[in-house]
Amino acid sequence: MGIMVVGTLAAGCQAPADRLQLDNFRQIRTTVSSQADVANGLGEPDTKLDGQWLYERPSKHLRAIIDFDGEGRVTRAQWIDAIGGAWEDTGGAAPAPRDAAGPEPRNARGTGKP
């Protein structure tokens, strides 16, 4: 009987499942989701800065960065998965393609020639 009680206690003390999952991240909507919505979906952040929450799982090479406006609404959300090679950014911060008619790239000497 004592073993059964210990087993039940051990099962009841398990850590909650990590909610930092891509499916949960994709539920976040810019200008719509609040800080409470983000916390309900992803859990409490590892770090709270002024207007920004950071979620980090170093062992998984995973990071989520959520930016908020002054009213606590999401303005930008980034998902960075170094192992899976995924980067999602609601801010559209991907580098713009170089215009074919634009300036030629420069080398260390400041000229377009190698």
For the structure shown, list the relevant keywords.
114 residues; alpha+beta; Beta-lactamase Inhibitory Protein, Chain:B, domain 1; five-stranded antiparallel sheet; globular; disordered N terminus
Q: Give me the Rg, rounded.
A: 22 Å
CATH topological fold name of the domain at 18-89: Beta-lactamase Inhibitory Protein, Chain:B, domain 1
How many helices? The count is: 3
Order of helices and strands: HHHEEEEE
What ranges have pLDDT less than 50 throughout 5 or more consecutive residues? 1-9, 94-98
* Broad shape: globular
Overall mean confidence score, pLDDT: 81
Question: What does this 3D model show about the protein?
Answer:
This protein has 114 residues and is α+β, with helices and mostly antiparallel strands. The chain has a domain of 72 residues: Beta-lactamase Inhibitory Protein, Chain:B, domain 1, CATH 3.30.1450. It is 20% helix and 25% strand. It has a five-stranded antiparallel sheet, covered by helices on one side. The termini are far apart. The N terminus is likely disordered.
